[in-house]
Amino acid sequence: MSNEPEAAGKRQAPVDVDTLPGGLAAALEAILMVADRPVSEFDLSKVLAVPVAEVRAALDSLRAEYDGLSADTTSVADPAISEDGAGQVSSGVVPRGFELRTVGGGWRFYSRAEFAPVVQAFVLEGQTSRLSRAAMETLAVVAYRQPVSRARVSAIRGVNVDGVMRTLVARGLLAEVDRDPISGALLYATTPYFLEKLGLDSLEELPQISPHLPGVDELEEFRG
Amino acid sequence: MSNEPEAAGKRQAPVDVDTLPGGLAAALEAILMVADRPVSEFDLSKVLAVPVAEVRAALDSLRAEYDGLSADTTSVADPAISEDGAGQVSSGVVPRGFELRTVGGGWRFYSRAEFAPVVQAFVLEGQTSRLSRAAMETLAVVAYRQPVSRARVSAIRGVNVDGVMRTLVARGLLAEVDRDPISGALLYATTPYFLEKLGLDSLEELPQISPHLPGVDELEEFRG
Amino acid sequence: MSTLVPEVDAGELSPGLSSGFAVELENFAGPFEVLLGLIGKHELDITTVSLAQVTDEFIEYVRALRLENSPAALDAASEFLVIAATLLDLKAARLLPRGEVSDEEDLALLEARDLLFARLLQYKAFKDVAALMGESMRIESARQARSVPLDPEFASLLPELVWRTTPEQFAEIARKAFEARTETPTEVGTDHLHGFAVTVRQEAEELRLLLEDGAEHGFRSLIAHAESVLVVVVRFLALLELFRDRAVDLRQEHPLDELWVTWTAASDWTADRLSDEHDRPVLPDDDGADASVTPQEVSA
């Protein structure tokens, strides 16, 4: 993605967003339009020199507005163009074709799921990349046990996972993050891209495993 | 999250856009939000199975709406969020932070020009004048395998390179040169600027590396 | 611990396996998978798996895969050892002297059995969660994230690159980048998968000869001249049988440490004293083919 980040925040906000047409909300739209990854509220707050709470509130409002829910203001967006779509404008509040979402630790523009059939004609990636069941299960083990060595994942799955792990790394879903201080084995963890693919903002949002598995944590040491 | 548009319009409109929430306008928004290059009215018309004239009219309306001019309909968008930007809502119609522009025969979302200072600040945040090691390695792989797809570079490097490749394109070291005739994937090559940086006159002057690198070709399956 | 295993629904375990445990190369996902499938097929409580039956069927399964003669089949076959170890865990627990949990070590071994079941459960839990995650991914794939090239207007603002890499250094970086990905995978021989019949009684007899001097022998030395991994496995089973028959004493300081064995039975002891259940030879394969495979899962 970007090159090595250096000590950030040494520049002042280049402009007072309140003086611009559309204010903070429009400034956020402008920035997210060029972002190629989720952008955190913290980063936005820093660039715009606006408190994080205000940034979050503005983003929440935008999201609600795009979703066709009424925003804080009473005015609403009505993107329906009269020529064709007049039939749908029942409530006067219509979702836009895009949405703003918090995934992978930040905010990002997405096309709305309903439009997948027309959008997919313009984007190739994402259609070709179904994961095999073995890959999916391996990914699940890493997601819940990270950071974790390949040996440990192998032990839990009962099969050699080297090939699958390499594929998952090549796909950007897993990354080598560290080395075990004792064994020296490489440790793997999921990436922000993994969170994006699952539509999650953070690992805490992973489905609870406990209903599926009572009391498994204690047997961790059984197979180092 | 790479999005390589394939030859558009080879499929029939899979869905009647009028049945979707937001209708044609929202469908156009969805497509343009994620297409990674300007899209022509013709391609949009083909994919959506809607006459070009209707597509153009809908796009004109959207553009006007984003610009804060009243759209065809009487309803208007008011993105101003009450917390902060209330001051600007003089007319009740405020431009958004993004705009639709026609460039090179196609439509594309851009950040609104007024917000260039904050967008610049965001883009420059954390940028350095040095390439990261990951970027350098990726560049090296492309240099010796060009023209080459991102998927292939990912397979060779064993990590997802989408972000790094974008950085290298943004830095003018790589360029999209072609499309793979079979997969439709974009192919990348180094630029004259890259040669200039390396102090070479042509690619032939790149030092030879061992002529055959066994196994590289079999890695293809790594990424569908 | 068995309360952890309220029910094992045969149907949901592995729908594909209901078709008579047919060969399913694409779906082969390892011994736990197979074991779960077998348990499901026989509608057995996971805690009372009939080992003899499961072992036989697993070997049958591996054999069927081998006949397919595909790389996936070889992968599957190479995993024989893993399931063998798994079954061995079960077997070891069952071979313990029953009804007399006298000391901590016995207790620990009994717990090992429960831990094995727990591991199977853990495996199943991850399978379930993986299915949920897969569904999330599928739903999520309908949305597409905006990810567009940086406008030239902004790209031109990036700081001018400082470039100090010479063409030679650059070539070296390229060479390393290619090399890193072209390591050859580890080869694992599967010669152990076929050959000769091995029986627990034979191996018990073999052990008796080795231990007769009355000295304490490390297990490593007892298997030092074993012809194959299979012999090692069966010899270990024999050792457990001998232990149950109180013909040997075992001593191990810590888990994974050397296992020390001392002969304790009378001099007239013979392997005939051992139970009948091991009379049938373990014969993992008989097609005589040899191969070595790369232990990689098949990822479609």
From TrEMBL, chain C:
The keyword Transmembrane does not apply. Residues 275-300 are annotated as: Disordered. It comes from the Bacteria. Transmembrane segments: none annotated. Keywords: Chromosome partition. It holds the Pfam family SMC_ScpA. One of its GO terms (biological process) is chromosome segregation. This is Segregation and condensation protein A. It comes from Kocuria subflava.
